[in-house]
Design brief:
575 residues; 19 helices; 0% strand; globular; Protein YTP1-like C-terminal domain-containing protein; transmembrane helix
């Protein structure tokens, strides 16, 4: 078998989904353990197991295509309420199913080298979650009542009314019942036999649809209200067939149930990619047989923190591209709407995550100690978590408008002249600075900078481990300096438009966070040991990471642009 190592797969197979590398078969070489590098012929992990390696690599490649290429496209189409949603979901489902079947066959032919691994269980959870979402989407096309058929002698269209929205047809806005799609379009009178077969289900469908129309306006933003899957539906068969199915299915569920389904569907769209990342990370751990026994705590400390920085980098790239612009996160002025409530700033969210992580990981590194003795390295890690707690709390206080107003109390009390008696010059003096309209909070960047500096000088048991830690420490420090440049630019000229200002320094911030997060994950003791055993060096890890991060950023920007294209395409089709 090729000598491909876990460290390489950490980056080359970032979309390794579940495939159940664990099996219930008994281990065929129980007298061997993973820590036997002096006997390389011993199959101590799936990477170096000599049999059926082709099936393992087929599983990895297929899952990479499914979870890195196919699923993000399906998610973007789903969020855009595109007519291509179902097709893209079916493509992903087929690829994922193929990868699962290959893994099941591989499990049946190999010993269980990592008993009770999390990848197997989590893989089935995400598969069931996505399958349920896909089923809701397809059934929603039917239970939403297929409508909007074209006039006779023209191509028949099916406009899906599930999760009806602002951009749906005006029929959905009507306070009264609307005509079902089996109506001829010229008369609302059905034969008595047809009416007796479907009147009950039709009544439920009409009521559920009207309730859904009102529900979606209450719970979803206007910019997302682009229709669940409007336009020509790619569903074969006659209109009558699908109409009857829609009436039957609609009769099974109340409007309250569909309201839950709608929330579940949108929630899965928002969380499935991070959840898939966790699943694939567990897959890499399983295939490489990392972090067994007490080493799990070191693995959690590195992979959780590295994963957080990785996703923070992706979030930063999304902010640069314009994502979350309605929150004011895209380095823009938040668009104003009537009845708009409080929304957290991006810096508040970053500070909150830093604070929570510090609280939940105070003793994580020490738990991996073999003898329970506190070492100076344990105290260093404890100090880092205290930095996260204090820095996160400080950042949240800075983002609080109440706190900022209280800090202005001294100045407010010193103003003795009422505004009505002031001259123009004096009125200008009491106006709040333009910088107040935009959040400029460097504390999250300072915390990341200090973490990078500390890790760059962190004592490690081997030279390669020290170099790897210095690599991701330098990358995080560079990301922090880039964020500082962003704040300098915006302080000199605060944003004045609702459109994303796209400061170029944020691209550097994103790159540093993504690359630093991946190398952070690879700096755990087990992964470094795998690099050493396979006679690789730290620079190999660094160069591979840089190439993959550049490719990943290009793919993320393409997928986000694809979402914008899908939204505009749907609007053009409905015009």
């Amino acid at each position: 078998m090729s000598s491909l190592t876990p460290a390489v797969l950490l980056f080359a197979a970032m979309a390794l989904a579940h495939g159940g590398e664990s099996s219930t078969m008994s281990m065929g070489a129980e007298n061997h353990t993973v820590d036997t590098p002096e006997e390389p012929q011993t199959p101590n992990s799936y990477f170096n197991y000599p049999k059926h390696s082709g099936a393992l690599f087929a599983h990895i490649v297929i899952m990479c295509v499914a979870w890195v290429v196919s699923l993000p496209v399906a998610v973007m189409f789903s969020i855009a309420r595109s007519r291509f949603t179902i097709v893209s979901q079916l493509v992903f489902g087929a690829l994922n199913a193929l990868g699962v079947f290959i893994a099941i066959g591989y499990n049946a032919s190999t010993p269980d080298l990592y008993p009770n691994n999390a990848h197997h269980k989590l893989g089935w959870i995400v598969t069931v979650t996505l399958t349920t979402q896909f089923a809701i989407g397809i059934v929603g096309k039917l239970a939403g009542v297929l409508q909007g058929l074209a006039k006779p002698h023209t191509q028949q269209y099916e406009q899906v009314a599930f999760i009806p929205t602002e951009s749906s047809s005006q029929q959905l806005r009507s306070p009264g019942p609307y005509r079902l799609s089996d109506d001829s379009g010229h008369s609302t009178v059905h034969s008595s036999s047809s009416h007796s077969r479907s009147s009950s289900a039709s009544t439920v469908a009409e009521h559920a649809q009207y309730e859904l129309n009102n529900m979606h306006k209450e719970h979803f933003d206007e910019e997302e209200d682009v229709g669940f899957a409007s336009g020509p539906a790619f569903i074969p068969g006659s209109a009558t067939k699908w109409t009857r199915a829609s009436e039957t299915i609609a009769g099974f569920f109340s409007a309250r149930v569909w309201r839950i389904f709608a929330v579940y569907y949108d929630a899965v769209d928002r969380v499935i990619l991070p959840l898939g990342f966790v699943t694939l990370a567990c897959g890499i751990v399983t295939v490489g047989r990392f972090f067994e026994d007490t080493r799990i705590y070191s693995g959690l400390a590195h992979w959780i923190k590295g994963g957080i920085f990785f996703w923070l980098g992706l979030l930063t790239l999304g902010r640069w591209s314009g994502s979350f612009g309605d929150f004011g996160w895209a380095w823009n002025i938040r668009p104003r709407r009537a009845g708009q409530g409080w929304r957290p700033t991006a810096e508040f969210t970053e500070s909150f995550l830093i604070f929570v992580y510090g609280i939940t990981n105070v003793f994580l590194e020490h738990l991996g100690s073999q003898d329970g003795v506190w070492t100076h390295q344990d105290l260093e890690h404890l100090s880092i978590t205290i930095l996260f707690i204090g820095g996160g709390a400080c950042g949240m206080l800075i983002e609080s408008s109440v706190v900022r107003e209280l800090l202005n109390t001294t100045v407010d009390e010193s103003i003795s002249v009422s505004e009505g008696l002031m001259v123009d010059r004096e009125r200008g003096e009491i106006e709040k600075p333009g910088q107040y309209s935009f959040s400029m909070n460097p504390i999250p960047a300072v915390v990341i900078l200090l973490l990078g500096i500390m890790m760059s000088s962190h004592e490690q048991p081997s030279m390669i481990s020290t170099m790897v830690h210095k690599q991701w420490g330098d990358l995080l420090a560079a990301a922090s300096f880039s964020r500082a440049l962003t704040y300098i630019i915006l302080w000199l000229r605060p944003p004045t438009s609702v459109y994303p200002s796209r400061p170029p320094t944020e691209l550097l911030t994103s790159f540093g966070l993504i690359a630093g997060g991946l190398i952070f994950m690879a700096s755990a003791s087990d992964t470094v040991d795998a690099i050493i055993r396979n006679q690789l060096d730290a620079m190999f890890l660094y160069t591979v990471t840089m190439g993959i991060v550049g490719l990943l950023m290009a793919w993320v920007l393409f997928v986000l642009a694809l979402k914008g294209w899908a939204v505009r395409k749907e609007k053009a089709w409905r015009a």
